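[09:14] KT: can someone run the structure on this one? pasting the chain below
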Amino acid sequence: MSESQSKEPQAFEGSKLHSACFLYPAIDNHAHPLLAEEHRDKFALEGLISEAQGPALTEDSVHTLACLRAVRQLSKIVDLGSEKTWESYKAARSKLPYRDLCQRFMDKKATKTQCIFLDDGLGNVDEFAEGCEWHDQFTSSPTKRIVRVEIVAEGILTSMLQSAQAVNHDLLNTFSRSFEESLTSSANDSLVVGYKSIACYRTGLDITVSEDVQGAVACLAEVNHSFTESGKIRLAHKALNDHIVRIALKVSGECGKPIQFHTGLGDNDLSLNHASPAHLQPVIKAFPKTPFVLLHSAYPFTREAGYLTAVYSNVWLDFGEVFPFVSAAGQRSIIQQVLELAPTNKILWSTDGHWWPESFYLGCLQAREVLWQVLSDYLRRGELSEDEAVLIVQNALFHNANKLYKLALEPNLTE
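[09:31] RB: done, structure tokens below
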């Protein structure tokens, strides 16, 4: 009999670790707003369990282990009768009043989520989703905002290009000042706790450290041309996008508000070979006072992200979004990879909840389950004491985010 087999299990239901995993309050450090009731069916519900698009979303994602597991878990909240299938779940939820659906899955007594940070720059949020304050009904602490920097930049450029006489260095400088002033103003807003960049989607995470003024002006001319033809702006121009991110990194460092980066897992709009957080190493080194948060477990580049948190004092790793997109076994492997190297005072949890209340519920339930499974196994192997494991859970779910984002919250242990 091996040493691990001979040890009495130190973790069991009712233990301090079990209580910490399933009952300790949590700060959801990255999510997006819920759809408004009149738009509850605006997007394919399969987006709940996959980042795919088109047929890969509606036809293929329902055959994943992630979907099969989600149906079983959701059926405990919405009665499906004997037929527990994805289609039966969609039919059952459609019959529930929207307020009832939200209350069932967002109930703070069930999820133990105390505070949510919302990135409200997701496409179509203004048109289809509820505002930040509306979400306060589901938490005991007020909802906070994450400012998406590329969306701010697009808004400023849209206004400027409507009356621009010429696209030149002066226009770039005027834009840069306005953009920096806007981000600085956001930092002074008590509801704003940080920034987010979607450089990963637009031009990749290989953000250059040095300034390319000529290139940025040339990109600005391309943006102006596109705006003249379509009346819309979507910033996906390398030199200009990198310029925008560098300004955001400067402001983040000066005001002490973290900047989150989408890394790894996403839809097919990103280039996977430019999605590894390893590409961020030069700017992490160039902006040592800027707090970087690597979102979404950086999956499938989790080990690279863990390395960056270990060797740079200004990098934190969020283990989110993989709940529920990845299978249970995959999630356990991801959390194990997070813990391989990342300091446990620098890991953060999130749901990446969006559009549907079920996304918040599954993101919370599955993360808690996997923390319990992984850490209780470490206890059985004698690699951690129970007190050490409990502290890891409490820090990951609440205290690390509370400290990093300067919330000064006390964990609500009564709900």
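[09:33] KT: thanks! The two ends are 43 Å apart (CA to CA).
[09:34] RB: yep, looked fine to me
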